[in-house]
């Protein structure tokens, strides 16, 4: 008669073997850049055994924790909320924490590189300062006049629904760094800044719409958009970015919002 300890050990071994049987071998091809070593970026291949249901972020962790501790990238919540791990995966802007290995044709090398249009600081990390400066420039906060109210500012469900879509932005920069206008001219505010301006321009409680519209009426503002839909395709939250930009353009022409 087997002892409970032996049965437990056997069960653990079976579980480990079953887990290993689900692993596949993939090549993670990462664009590496270290300014302290070279002025040129290089592609480096890493061969991994990984469950295809794992995410690209898990693969990056595996490289960093088990193969090369010098690999540098941003990540925080790992659940598609913080937006810090936006990068180009197989040529498309995505969140590494929301992209599954099995959805990337793992029979071929999976390429990972930093998002475009922003200066690369090291490996997959880019300088986000210009992106956040554009965000700050559109005044992404509620502007009201008069005395502080004695109760909350009420809003109907219909008024709230007017800007509901653009409240979903997580400032990952996937939309802005997918924009060809932004690639060619870093002065352009970019889709994310316009989306966050939209969120307040169409808020019935806000009184700063005219100010924001004047800011976006600048030569580097909303009129630079060429309606290529790259931003909408890149948004990991499914925001209709191009539609929001067109609504801001319409508000500039009609001054109705």
TrEMBL record:
Give start-end of the signal peptide: none
Query: What chemistry does it catalyse, as a reaction equation?
Result: a quinone + succinate = fumarate + a quinol
Is this entry keyworded 4Fe-4S?
Answer: yes
- Give start and end of each 2Fe-2S ferredoxin-type domain: 24-118
The record places domain 4Fe-4S ferredoxin-type at 159-181
EC no.? Answer: 1.3.5.1
Pathway in which the depicted protein is active: Carbohydrate metabolism; tricarboxylic acid cycle
Q: Which InterPro entries match?
A: 2Fe-2S_ferredoxin-like_sf, 2Fe-2S_ferredoxin-type, 4Fe4S_Fe-S-bd, 4Fe4S_Fe_S_CS, Beta-grasp_dom_sf, Helical_ferredxn, SDH/FRD_Iron-Sulfur, Succ_DH/fum_Rdtase_Fe-S
PROSITE patterns, from UniProt? Answer: 2FE2S_FER_2, 4FE4S_FER_1, 4FE4S_FER_2
What cofactor is this protein dependent on? [3Fe-4S] cluster; [4Fe-4S] cluster; [2Fe-2S] cluster
Q: Which UniProt keywords apply?
A: 2Fe-2S, 3Fe-4S, 4Fe-4S, Iron, Iron-sulfur, Metal-binding, Oxidoreductase, Tricarboxylic acid cycle
- Gene Ontology biological-process entries: respiratory electron transport chain; tricarboxylic acid cycle
- Which Pfam families does this chain map to? Fer2_3, Fer4_10
Q: How is the cofactor bound?
A: Binds 1 [3Fe-4S] cluster.
Gene3D superfamilies, sorted: 3.10.20.30, Alpha-helical ferredoxin
| GO molecular function terms noted in the UniProt entry | 2 iron, 2 sulfur cluster binding; 3 iron, 4 sulfur cluster binding; 4 iron, 4 sulfur cluster binding; electron transfer activity; metal ion binding; succinate dehydrogenase (quinone) activity
Q: Name the family.
A: Belongs to the succinate dehydrogenase/fumarate reductase iron-sulfur protein family.
Q: What is this protein called?
A: Succinate dehydrogenase iron-sulfur subunit
Q: Which organism is it from?
A: Actinacidiphila oryziradicis
Supply the source organism's classification: Bacteria, Bacillati, Actinomycetota, Actinomycetes, Kitasatosporales
